[in-house]
Amino acid sequence: MGKKALLKRARSLAERFCVTKAAGFRLGRIDPGETLDFGSEDKPQARQALAAGVAALADLQDKLYAQDRWALLLIFQAMDAAGKDGTIKHVMSGINPQGCEVFSFKSPSAEELDHDYLWRHAKCLPQRGRIGIFNRSYYEETLAVRVHPEFLAGQKLPA
Most buried among 47, 86, 136, 158, using CB within 10 Å? Predict the structure, then answer.
């Protein structure tokens, strides 16, 4: 399959996931078990679709870099052992690593605790023309403390 055909195939597969209007969009309406109609017997077709997506990403990364106007931030949020690392490895395998950076957010460092709780995420945002990947997100900073308020004890927050 030629490059143009691969790109066309990738775009057609991605259409189901494009959000064109924010109004009325609800993430809860997206089926997390979506397989794009690929069954377990369709592995060769799934591999071909992945190759098409990788080719499309590489092409789009070149354009992103050349324009030097926008940046792309991908946020992977899931429980431990849910496949975030494997997804990043497979999906991003065709892009130029010089234009991409992955950040994993562990426990905050002393420097990070001297700033507001979103500072460490803001400082990792990608530059124009580059792709940034957050392996876990700032979402945990807002959600986890509601379930575990003791996490706030080390944040140096006023009473």
Answer: 136
Token pair, residue 59, equals: 């092409």
What tokens does 149 get? 């308020």
Count CB atoms within 10 A of the CB of residue 108.
17
Q: Are 135 and 86 in contact (CB under 8 A)?
A: no
Q: Out of 36-40, 61-65, 90-94, 150-154, give the one with best mean pLDDT.
A: 61-65
Tokens for 43, please give them: 């592995």
How far apart are the C-alpha atoms of 151 and 107, rounded to whole Å?
10
pLDDT digits (tens, 9 = 90+) for 35-44: 888 877 778 8
Question: What is the token pair recorded at 39?
Answer: 């069954």
Judging by beta carbons within 10 Å of its beta carbon (0-12, 13-18, 19+), is residue 68 exposed, middle or buried? exposed
